[in-house]
Every structure is written in C-alpha cells, then in structure tokens.
Write a structure and sequence with these properties.
The chain is of the alpha/beta class. It has a single domain, classed as Stationary-phase Survival Protein Sure Homolog, Chain: A (3-Layer(aba) Sandwich). The protein has seven helices and eleven strands. The strands form two sheets. A nine-stranded mixed beta sheet has the order 3-4-2-1-5-6-7-11-8, with helices on both faces. Strands 9-10 form a two-stranded antiparallel sheet. A hairpin with a 5-residue loop joins strand 9 and strand 10. Helix 1 packs across helix 4 and helix 2 packs parallel to helix 3. It is globular, with a radius of gyration of 22 Å. The protein starts with a strand and ends in a 9-residue tail after the last helix.
C-alpha cells in the first residue's frame, strides 16, 4: 500500500511523527509512506488553497517533502507532481494536536487536507488527538492515537463506504479522546456536533506603535454538545468516527424551499400595473 501523509501543524510536528508510525504499520514492509506537509504551521486554514501565488516545494529526504502552503496545497502537490505517476492508495491527515470535533471541523486544515484528497477521488481519513486535563501530564499526549490509530484505520478500510462514483466522495473524521490509551472506552460512529455556548472570538491588542491587532481565541473545548455527537463521545472516552463529504447543501431544506420559491423569478418579471398617465 502506498500512503500519503500530511497535516496542518507543520512538517516537524510531533503528531506527524505519530502518523508516520501508524502509516508505516498499515503499509507494511512492502509498502510506501510519503510525506508532503506544510513547511510551517497552517492551523485554522480549513480547505484553503494557494490560488493567487506560487507555492515552493522542497525535498527534505527520501519520500519527504515540505510545501510553503496549506494541507490542501500539499495534497495537490503530491498527486499532481510528486506522485503523479503513482497516486497514493490512501491519504491520512494529522495527527492533529487538539481535537477537530464539533464546530472545529469548519476551521480545520487537517480536515481540509482529507477533503481535498476526497475531491481528487482518493480514500482519505483525518485524525486528531483531543487534549484535556487527563492528557496534560502524560509523557506522550498522543498516547491514545499512537496506540489505537492503526486499528481504527483498518476498521474503516474494511467497513467504510469507499465508493468513488458519487459526485462527492466520502472521507472520515477521526478524533481520539482526551484520555490515556488504556482508558479509551471504544469507538462510536457519530455526527458532527457543536459545543453549547462556546465559539471563536478575538482579543484586541494595541502595539507600542499604536497599531491595532487582534488574537483569535477559541472557546472551551470541554463544553457540552448533543448527546450523540462527536464531542460528547470524545469527552466520554470514546474514539469518534464521522463520515463527511465536501457538500454543504442542507438537503432537508431543498424540497420545502423549492416549493416556495420555484417560479419566483417568472413572477418578478411580470409587468406592474400603473395608473400613471
């Protein structure tokens, strides 16, 4: 198996090292693991691509490359250039330092890398390590993902929906709970949730020269969410697996809104009565 790994924390991030170990175990002695990751941290860039400027790609070693761009850029560089004649069988993005559950999904470069791979027709999985009080004192905060990552991915390869004939191919979002590996309770397939009363914001700052800046701040990652959500599963000690696709359509609203608005343009074009002489 030929596996491509990327992330959004950067080429030197410890989570990428963990992912390399997981990928090597999955690929086996006859497989290949290729790394194409951002040269610098790209957290929060979501599915951004460097459309308006060129991206430098540097070879750092055998099957190891760094790109001055986003995770989606890295996937594009891999499949369109570095591995264009031998596309990967699987793309893994992570292991992110911090969770990509709940509303974090919408901002995540880790998710963006997996999404781009899926849009290119490749099987893809995003992996993230939830952090919290129970991981703060661990010698290895990635302990849960390091020990359970390969088994979770094997289960997805065996039982996931990997058909590529749909317009938007599925990819998978995996979050490992903020507990030691021995305390992981199991695995749950969950929808994406949203933490109640927790959101991103800004902290304003005035520099000594009088210029105004801001720091983006995140909300509490321990806040509660819906009972069946990825957030709740993780905070209860479970690995969460969420099937996703790059389709933001609210399908539940299509029929109702269509019934209400279909034909509206025609009515706009009807001439208005006027009493003007």
């Amino acid at each position: 198996m030929r596996i491509l790994i990327t992330n959004d924390d950067g080429i030197n991030a410890p989570g990428l090292e963990v992912l390399g170990e997981i990928a090597a175990e999955l690929a086996g002695p006859d497989g290949e693991v290729w790394t194409v990751a951002p040269a610098f941290e790209q957290s929060g860039v979501a599915h951004c691509i460097s459309y308006s400027h060129p991206t430098m790609v540097a070879r750092l070693g055998e099957r190891r490359f760094a790109a001055e761009g986003s995770p989606a850029d890295c996937v594009l560089a891999a499949i369109s250039d570095i591995l264009k004649d031998n596309r990967p069988d699987l793309v893994l993005s992570g292991v992110n330092r911090g969770n990509n559950a709940g509303e974090n999904v919408m901002y995540s470069g880790t998710i963006g890398g997996a999404m781009e791979a899926a849009l290119q027709g490749l099987p893809a999985i995003a992996l993230s390590q939830y952090l919290g009080p129970k991981t703060a004192d661990l010698e290895d905060p990635f302990e849960a993902s390091r020990q359970h990552g390969a088994a979770v991915i094997r289960s997805l390869l065996d039982h996931g929906d990997w058909e590529s004939d749909a317009d938007f191919r599925l990819f998978y979002n995996v979050n490992f709970p903020p507990v030691p590996a021995a305390d992981v309770q199991g695995l749950r397939v969950t929808p994406q949730g949203r933490r109640r009363g927790s959101s991103f914001g800004v902290v304003p700052y005035t520099a000594p020269n009088g210029r105004r800046f801001m720091w983006v701040s995140g909300g509490s990652q321990q806040a509660s969410a819906a009972e069946n959500s990825d957030v709740t599963a993780n905070l209860s000690g479970y690995v969460s697996v969420t099937p996703m696709r790059a389709d933001l359509t609210c399908h539940n609203s299509l029929e109702r809104l269509g019934d209400a608005l279909n034909g509206a343009i025609a009515s706009f074009r009807q001439p208005m009565n006027s009493d003007a002489g």
